[in-house]
What we know:
alpha+beta, four-stranded mixed beta sheet, 23% strand, 11 helices, homodimer, Phosphoribosyl-aminoimidazole Synthetase, Chain A, domain 2, disordered C terminus
Amino acid sequence: MSEDPARDGNGGRPGEFDLIKTYFAPLAGDPGSLGLTDDAAVLTPVPGSDLVLTKDVLAADRHFFADDPPEAIAAKALRVNLSDLAAKGASPRGYLLGLALPQDWTEDWLVRFTRGLAADQAAYDITLLGGDTICSGDGLQISITAIGEVPNGKAVRRSGAKPGDILFITGTVGDAAAGLKVLLDKSFSAESGLSLHDERHVIDRYLLPRPRMALTGALRARATAALDVSDGLIADAGHMAVASGVDLVIDLARVPVSPALRQLRANSPKAFAACLNGGDDYEILSFVPADQADGFVAEAARAGCPVTPIGRAEQGSGAVRFENADELSGHLQGPGFRHF
Amino acid sequence: MSEDPARDGNGGRPGEFDLIKTYFAPLAGDPGSLGLTDDAAVLTPVPGSDLVLTKDVLAADRHFFADDPPEAIAAKALRVNLSDLAAKGASPRGYLLGLALPQDWTEDWLVRFTRGLAADQAAYDITLLGGDTICSGDGLQISITAIGEVPNGKAVRRSGAKPGDILFITGTVGDAAAGLKVLLDKSFSAESGLSLHDERHVIDRYLLPRPRMALTGALRARATAALDVSDGLIADAGHMAVASGVDLVIDLARVPVSPALRQLRANSPKAFAACLNGGDDYEILSFVPADQADGFVAEAARAGCPVTPIGRAEQGSGAVRFENADELSGHLQGPGFRHF
């Protein structure tokens, strides 16, 4: 009874115990994972810390394409969760992986998928704590629960913005949505005047979110509210305005965009507006008190994370208004990308 | 931008924000859930405690039938995770729910599913901390990450059994596997001599695991190793023997079974043996030092959890041997139920 089950009835592919031993156990560096040999992981929290817990479920042909590179699927599944931790000011501690493989999974696919996880574990200082693998008969689904740590009471929420606070965004927005359009519509690039270089840039932004872990310290120290942009810049800004009970003014002339998106804005304001609120950016929107804004910018710069002020909170109850909408007026409706 | 998205493009069904507000937020009693209005949950661990983390993914027509009562599906998904916590000696703290709905989900189904969660939350003193809901285009899948607490260093593992320790099992084993056989094979009951009452009993055991939360205190105080039986009595006993580096002797005359399974043993030793190692029992197998065995039995009885000694650990390296196999000899091969 002590042997692992043979590769029987499984098309020559390894069974669950073999999968764990060969592919997942090497990802489980934290002693709390118990080497994935037990029913559960056992985590000793750092004294004085809170745990931040987030969970995202990704399904093939809904959140990624089934034939995307397995490394990229693994990275996306992990990174969308890491991005939530970053926005809450939390440092990654570990994650649990729920993997529902399709009937026709191959060992080569799994080698590449776990290689993608290993690369990101090293890049983001997080390891596998546990999980479950099934073969579902349906399309690939990945459910990750990520766990972060933050000093007691220091998690940054959506709800702390005050009138007068400055709204910041990291990086640039709209690229990922443009990348999805390029992938879905072969005529989009030509119609929008995107160069091959632009195309590559926006597709890469769609495939591979870059969670802004470098900003967690500055957020913890100075932000009154924050979230990561997954539903769309305006939709997510609205979520914070509602949660904080403030109105929000966004200066559209200040929203930072890539050269590709500038090109798009010039050629098709409507498509540009859709991308601006298209979601999947995984940049961080945050509110910072006005007297802390310079310090926040300096601290972010030291961390290597570009931030741009794009608006402010005002007395109100959750409305979002725009300045310098110009040719985008009338195109900025809609609730952003609906993941559901 | 502050409105929830309307019920557009969704066949008149609520969108994700409405689902959260109407169905999931009422399940989120812990303040750490932030009312499900943020990107993540924030949990303040009880000082001096470890967290126990477990994750099980369940798929329609793989771990349950798609047309099972929604309340039962909810209960099963939550309870298989609770059972892992119980076996580690952990008290439930909260859970995250990943729900991938099929395209044809109905609001009525969701009402009943969340009602099932609510009932179990009350029964097992656990609340929803967060999660994610998607509509996948595939069959229903449920991924739950459950979080338990245990005093520092007191989590019970698979690996602590010593030669001389007594092997205990809670309740009875084999019923759930018999229930699955009844559901899959219409001639099984008649061939096995099961009465209508027997049928109902075993089907109920298959549909609704009863995690043995009552035993957590006794396990923490006295067990050297424990796990819950999901793969099958003998397979899971073997896992503990391997992890602990001991041999294991199981006295098959002492393994507690229900009247339905006694009937099955009399009529079909082969089918009985298959059920005994069929899995999905969610009873707890544990090792207890011989000098603690009486105390363990008494403490379990006070907690209302029946335990039966069925074997012992011996010097060795992971082998499982049987006493009183009798007519079951030759039928006790195989690795147990393969969830994968």
